[in-house]
Amino acid sequence: MKAVVYKSTGSWYVTKKEENKFLNARLKGVFKLDGITSSNPVAVGDEVEIEMENETEQTAIITEIFPRRNYINRQSPSHKKQHHILAANIDQSLLFATLKNPRTSQGFIDRFLLTCEAYHVPSMIVFNKTDLYKKKDHEKLKELKEMYESIGYKVVLMSITNGEGVEEVKLLLKDVITLMTGHSGVGKSSFINSILPVKLKTQDISGWSGKGVHTTTFAEMFDLPGGGKIIDTPGMKEFGLVDVTKQELSHYFPEMKKLIGQCQFNNCLHTDEPGCAIKKALEEGRINIMRYTSYWNILDSIDERNY
Known about the structure:
Layout: E1 2-8, E2 12-17, E3 22-27, E4 47-54, E5 59-65, E6 71-75, E7 83-88, E8 92-97, H1 106-118, E9 123-127, H2 135-151, E10 154-157, H3 166-173, E11 177-182, H4 188-195, E12 220-223, E13 229-232, H5 246-249, H6 254-257, H7 277-283, H8 289-301
Parallel strand pairs: 3-5, 8-9, 8-11, 9-10, 11-13
Antiparallel strand pairs: 1-2, 1-4, 2-3, 4-5, 6-7, 12-13
């Protein structure tokens, strides 16, 4: 039987058969010896072949994982030498970000966006909690929105409290499979509760740290009432890159990618090489200094020994 993985808890998977029936399934032992380098051999969104194991308990065995059309990957938080697949077979990603309570850094946003570029997944940014922002925050938000939109990313400003942007985001989710992610506490679960009949747990921001508290422990897919699916992921503190070399990095910055061929040297890293088209565009204001600084910081963090 063919099924889709809706939830992963590490050892058991919730799968959904074509006739809308859910089954708990576990992995056939041989997969664990099959050279899989990710910390989760089966990811939410995977299409799998299952065989019934126990009719009474409604459990099954996963015997095959079908080829993925795409997936989103990050460095495993618990095993730095391994990667962790957030979700597979998705149409788009939606990153929830906030300027305060908690603050999402531009570095985190850019790492996520470049990972989506690397895996050919269109991505969008939702800046949430706009009702909490003061004048200075709104000025910063305007700057970020203009910067990301000029590169080609869809940006939505949202407040679940006063309803701003909520309907716009709902429309973006219709009839497609969307990965939703962000730090803990950015309001992702509250938004999902506004569009799903089944309510997720939400928690307040931890007062002493200003950081969110994890409420989602495992990735899980939900069917939307009006068509489409969302994959909710646990809140992330950081987003570690996997398999991105220093040489490739600029290819995942859309504003740099279109200029790379104009550099004097094929192996240009766009730092201090002569005849660099990226540095020229930066000086002329065609590349945003904040994005270039982000590129430089990420470039500096890539340890070639890891690849």
